[in-house]
């Protein structure tokens, strides 16, 4: 009996790669490919696949949102993610299988073979239990967002209260985190940091800039539709076109 599979990813290259790799696996039958969470929920409820390859962060919702909203029993899941090792601690804790982008073919087939073996052993109840445990973990994390950001410093780690962070800028492979009194360096992407920060206070205004809106002093119209935000420490940052609408809506301007 073939295993029916659904691919859920908002990146065309990732969708095509997974689909092409599965064509060489005779035990897997791809019955659908989704690029949005809304489409994925409908397909899962309608087609009831045995296995899904699920991207954690889509443009319209997260993979966890999808699992919360489906009306059928969750199938076996191979998570596909660009999250780094820091964000994947939860997956290791719950012994989930996942593909960390960019993944190679050998790692992909290890995941697939595990799923095939579990399916033939009818051991899917273990997968269901793991899904439930992870979803409970995610719910608790959502209700208890972090209040301090850990910063490793040689042989110690300090914790910066989030409400003290004025803005964060990208610098090569590092993020520069500014408070009123000091600058800290953290080897982390801005996107991963944004995922950890409270969206009620922090917003991205440029691919290289996140600001705490509580520290905004004023907005400056610089001509030709350009807008700069001036922070309370007098530093100014340009709001790029791709983030402008979201920012102005949030600020009620």
UniProtKB/TrEMBL annotation:
SMART domains, per the entry: LytTR, REC
GO molecular function, a single term: DNA binding
SUPFAM superfamilies associated with the record: CheY-like
HTH LytTR-type domain location: 149-253
Keyword Methyltransferase: no
Pfam families on file: LytTR (PF04397), Response_reg (PF00072)
Domain Response regulatory: 4-116
Keyword Metal-binding included in the entry's annotation: no
Keywords assigned: Phosphoprotein
Post-translational modification 4-aspartylphosphate, affected residues: 55
InterPro entries tied to this protein: CheY-like_superfamily, LytR-like, LytTR_DNA-bd_dom, Sig_transdc_resp-reg_receiver
PANTHER family per record: STAGE 0 SPORULATION PROTEIN A HOMOLOG, TRANSCRIPTIONAL REGULATOR-RELATED
Name of this protein: Two component transcriptional regulator, LytTR family
């Amino acid at each position: 009996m073939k295993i029916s599979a659904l691919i859920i990813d908002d990146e065309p290259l990732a969708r095509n790669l997974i689909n092409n790799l599965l064509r060489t696996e005779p035990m897997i039958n791809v019955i659908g490919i989704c690029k949005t969470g809304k489409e994925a929920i409908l397909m899962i409820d309608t087609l009831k696949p045995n296995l899904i390859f699920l991207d954690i962060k889509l443009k319209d919702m997260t993979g966890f949102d999808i699992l919360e909203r489906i009306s059928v029993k969750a199938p076996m899941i191979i998570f596909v993610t660009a999250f780094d090792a820091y964000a994947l601690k939860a997956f290791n804790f719950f012994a989930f299988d996942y593909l960390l982008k960019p993944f190679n073919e050998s790692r992909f087939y290890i995941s697939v073979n595990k799923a095939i073996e579990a399916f033939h052993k009818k051991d899917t109840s273990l997968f269901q239990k793991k899904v439930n445990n992870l979803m409970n973990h995610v719910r608790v994390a959502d209700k208890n967002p972090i209040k301090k950001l850990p910063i490793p410093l040689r042989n110690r780690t300090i914790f910066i209260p989030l409400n003290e962070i004025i803005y964060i800028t990208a610098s090569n492979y590092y993020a520069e985190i500014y408070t009123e009194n000091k600058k800290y360096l953290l080897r982390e992407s801005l996107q991963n940091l944004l995922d950890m920060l409270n969206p009620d206070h922090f917003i991205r205004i440029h691919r290289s800039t996140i600001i705490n809106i509580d520290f905004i002093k004023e907005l400056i119209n610089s001509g030709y539709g350009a807008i700069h935000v001036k922070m309370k420490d007098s530093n100014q940052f340009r709001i790029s076109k791709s983030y402008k609408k979201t920012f102005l809506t949030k600020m009620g301007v």
